[in-house]
Amino acid sequence: MLISLTVGKVDAGVAVLLTEDKRLLLLQLLCMSLLNPTNTIQIEFPSILLPPSITSGSIVDITVSRNLDSEAAAQKSFQSLQSSILSTYGQQSPSPPVIRCRNATQTSVVLEWDPIALATAELRSLSLYRNDSKAGNIPKPKEMTSTKMSGLAVDTEYNFQLVLRTSAGVYSSEKLTVRTHKMTDLSGITVTPGMMAPPLRESLSGAIDRIGAKIAENVRIDTTHFVCMEGRGREWEKAVEMNIPVVRPEWVEGCEREGRIVGVRGYYLNADPKLRQ
Fold it and tell me: At what angle do helices 250-258 and 198-211 cross, to 10 degrees?
């Protein structure tokens, strides 16, 4: 469609154009608005597109037509973008955490879970709940896959749940029910042996087997006691750093003799033997 317009006035940023029936057409760079709701039409039009030599009385021709090729290209580009967004963000979503009990004792529980799966979402937080109350946020949730809950009551049932908050929503694990052990249940004890003579080490291993406890060659999150005769070595330092009780082998013998877990106070390396049970 071809339209002929007569230039009525040329001002800074504004061209006043007249149609043959003397209707006023304002073409302006700044914004589109109606200056006169009767006959005056104002549209946004870059003045740089007008011929540079126009003056009042000049006639300009404006051709308006539908560009089907450009429409098709734009539609194809848009569909490609939509497909890319769908394949990147729409086909995968974060997975709910899966929580497990790694070990339980009379007063503690070690929990572990698979590495969190975020897909393309951003991590907000990973929180641990105990009996439906928030126990705290997991530090470094992209790296940590376990935690230890201490200070629990003996022979008591607890519910634990992980809640993953992401930019794509909130995902909760199934609730995990764990019961702490009775004083006579020694299966939760995990001993890491330290410096001691080989015969004593062999005797310690036998006692641990008899009470149903476990041995871990290296200190880890579920190590409950570090047993040694001398306080030195890298594993001993790690145990001290993690506040794991460092006791003599006689502590395991005391548990076996009493048929229950005994206190560690009298079995520290420098403790008075009179304090032993």
Answer: 30
SS3 15: strand
| CA pair distance 215, 204, nearest whole angstrom | 10
Residue 258 to residues 64, 184, 213, 250, 264: CA-CA distances in angstroms?
Answer: 99, 9, 15, 12, 13
Amino acid at 43: I
pLDDT tens string 173-211: 999 999 999 999 999 999 999 999 999 999 999 999 999
Confidence of residue 13 (pLDDT cuts 50, 70, 90): low
For 76-97, write each residue's pLDDT tens digit: 999 998 888 777 766 788 999 9
Structure tokens at 44: 């946004």
Q: Distance of CA 229 to CAs 19, 195, 241, Å?
A: 105, 6, 18
Residue 161 Cα distances to 12, 100, 128, 139, angstroms: 68, 10, 6, 16
